[in-house]
Design a protein that fits this description.
four-stranded antiparallel sheet, 1 helix, 8 strands, 22% helix, alpha+beta, 29% strand, globular
Length: 109
Amino acid sequence: MNLRVSANKCKYAVVALLSASALAVGWPAQAATGTFTYTAIDGKTYQITNPVGGKCYALPSPTQGNENNQTNAPVYLFPDTACKFQQLGVVMPGQTGNIQRAQSTLFTG
């Protein structure tokens, strides 16, 4: 009887482990369609075209505002280069923003 209980516990542990692995790795990311453009503090205009959803993009120069999201996904802007700190703001699809000093972006879909 103990062997049967142990086998069931083992089966549930394997299912839990596989589920946790799927959550940690995530499902395949969808690419957003369109272009995100922003003006940087260095005065240049940068763009990201057809960004991968769920991927953090470090920006070559921090934003000075004037973000233009012409993708089909919201874009979140962060003050660090790794999308780890609390977001500064979000620019919805088809909208413009005025978020300053962002150093990375993350697109969701």
